Amino acid sequence: MKELHVYISSEDEVTSAIIERLLEYCSDSQQVYVVIKKMPARGGKIKSVIPNLNNLSQNNPVILLTDLDASACAPSLKTQLLNGIPQNNNFIMNIAVDEAEAWLMADRVGFASFIGVPVEKIPNATMQKQQGMNARLEMKFPYKSSRYLTCSLINDSKKQEICRQLKPANGSVKGPEYNAAILPFIQKQWNISDAMANSDSLTRMINRLMELKTRM
Q1: Burial 100-138 (b: 16+ CB within 10 A, else e)
Q2: Furthest-apart CA atoms within the chain: distance in Å
Q3: What are 112-146's pLDDT values in tens digits?
Q4: What is d(CA 152, CA 134) in angstroms, rounded to the nearest whole number?
Q5: Is the sign of the CA dihedral 119, 157, 13, 67 positive or negative?
Q6: Separation between Cα atoms, residue 173 and residue 166, nearest integer Å
Q7: 74-82 and 46-56 helices cross at what angle (nearest 10)?
Q8: β partners of residue 92
Q9: pLDDT tens column, 169-212
Q10: What is the mean pLDDT of residues 28-44?
Q11: Which residues 6+ apart lie within 8 Å of 106 measured at CB?
């Protein structure tokens, strides 16, 4: 079995776990992705670390995952982050629409079961144009997906422990044990194939990882 060594860079623990699960999904009996090192890239500081990540990818591939958030569209955010720097072939930049949490909820049946709500409570995917020429299929939330999860969806949950972990308190954005609650779903329950059917941005990341594997 050939080991494909990569660095990963993400904004938080949840996003890092998503990258690792996707690498596992894209590995097979002949080639397996192995993470050399995790390199944090916090949202407000991500632009400043892009040159270093790009340079690092000359030796081993670097896989970055960040959120679209309030940016107009993924291509424009990517252009802003690169800021004129030529992107190395092995610097794999991925942008989750609208956030990585949307990719998790794109597995509508699985996430509904995990959180303890009827599947009808999970928003559907819709064709969204953003600012590009072509509409893309993505999950449609009334506001940021992570906030929708912790401030709206969780209120319908029948699972007391999940509610305790995810419900914000004292002005917080996320619950006291947000990571502890979400990480097991990512690692053991998330049906990536089902989620891909509801998210073009997730599918694009999978395609990039598959293509990278053929070049390594």
Answers
A1: bbbbbbbbbebbbebbbbeeebbbebeebebeeeeebbb
A2: 50
A3: 999 999 999 999 999 987 666 678 899 999 999 99
A4: 31
A5: positive
A6: 10
A7: 80
A8: 63
A9: 877 788 889 999 999 999 999 999 999 999 999 999 999 999 99
A10: 90
A11: 125, 139, 194, 195, 196, 197, 198, 199, 202
Three-class SS of 175-190: CCCHHHHHHHHHHHHC
Tokens of 203: 């599918």
Separation CA 155–CA 196 (nearest Å): 26
Decide: 205 and 20 in contact? Cβ < 8 Å. Answer: no
Q: Are 16 and 8 in contact (CB under 8 A)?
A: yes
Please state, in angstroms and as integers, the Cα–Cα distance from residue 191 to each residue in 48, 116, 174, 183, 205, following that order: 34, 16, 24, 14, 15
Which ranges constitute the DSSP H helices of the chain? 13-26, 46-56, 74-82, 100-105, 108-115, 145-151, 160-166, 178-184, 192-196, 200-215
Helices H, strands E: what count in the chain? 10, 6
Tokens 């949202």 map to which residue? 43
